Amino acid sequence: MAEQQVGIVGETPARIEAEAGARVGDFVALLKPRVMSLVVFTGFAGLFVAPGHIHPVIAAVAVLCIAVAAGASGAINMWYDRDIDAVMSRTRNRPIPRGAVTPEQALAFGLVLSAFSVMLMDIAVNTTAAALLAFTIFFYVVVYTIWLKRSTPQNIVIGGASGAFPPMIGWAAVTGDVSLASISLFLIIFMWTPPHFWALSLYKEGDYAKAGVPMMPVVAGQRSTKLQMLVYTLILCPLTLVPVYFGVAGWIYGAASIALNLGFVGHAIRVLRSDDLRNAKRMFGFSLLYLFLHFALLCVDRAPGVMPAILSVLS
């Protein structure tokens, strides 16, 4: 009788539980906070190193908008990918697959936050930053999640652009425009994304194959993926030094970037030469540190008083 009643109203026990007991923590999980934290930090770095002045309150609002938009994109992504999330071990404990939040709740949550973040950025900061923010949400949700992710092994190569826009948004929040210098920050993340994510997909290949997602190792094989990871890493190395050319960063950043690049290339070579997938897992972990340190060093290099202090110590 209980099963018949569930069938009559068209509800599953998981749906009933989600609608009755969704908690704040479940909605926070929809925002993909770990992914969002790095996105927000790169957006802050773009804002920090941009030429010009911005009121601290407006700067805080801009960073908040980037954070909310990133989280909103994650929520909509989870709504659309709920079928494959339920299959993959890495994602099956997300709020929708485990029945903590209904798909409709996740979609509504993401759409409301998306609209809020773009409107607030437009009203409080400027239209250029708001337009870039809106395009970033569109690109991640429509271009990457809905179109590319399930249709081509180039999903990460093209779709990775969505994660590369935050420094440009932060820059535009200060300057109101897009410059070659801000594009150089975009290119660092854009070229970093394939080796970063392919390292993950190497040791999670079975998950992606089971879910039917055409990640590069599933479609092209591990050897081809490893070669491409090395190629992208080698292309990335000189790109990380372009901000020095544009005057966005100085020698502190430049010297550290060279060291980080040597480490990243070393990881890519080890992945290529070995069948031990633990090397791919190590490269994935290092790639997170690699990107964080690059953008942290951009801020350090441009922080007031840092250079005089260093020069005084050296002298």
From TrEMBL:
Pathway: Porphyrin-containing compound metabolism; heme O biosynthesis; heme O from protoheme: step 1/1. GO terms for molecular function: protoheme IX farnesyltransferase activity. InterPro entries: Protohaem_IX_farnesylTrfase (IPR006369), UbiA_prenyltransferase (IPR000537), UbiA_prenylTrfase_CS (IPR030470), UbiA_sf (IPR044878). Keywords: Cell membrane, Heme biosynthesis, Membrane, Transferase, Transmembrane, Transmembrane helix. CDD domains: PT_UbiA_Cox10. It catalyses: heme b + (2E,6E)-farnesyl diphosphate + H2O = Fe(II)-heme o + diphosphate. It comes from the Bacteria. Its EC number is 2.5.1.141. The chain crosses the membrane at residues 35-51, 57-80, 101-121, 127-148, 155-174, 180-200, 229-246, 252-272, 284-303. It is an enzyme of class 2 (transferase). It is found in: Cell membrane. It is a multi-pass membrane protein. Pfam families: UbiA. Converts heme B (protoheme IX) to heme O by substitution of the vinyl group on carbon 2 of heme B porphyrin ring with a hydroxyethyl farnesyl side group. Belongs to the UbiA prenyltransferase family. Protoheme IX farnesyltransferase subfamily. Carbon 2 of the heme B porphyrin ring is defined according to the Fischer nomenclature. This is Protoheme IX farnesyltransferase. It comes from Dongia sedimenti. The gene is cyoE.
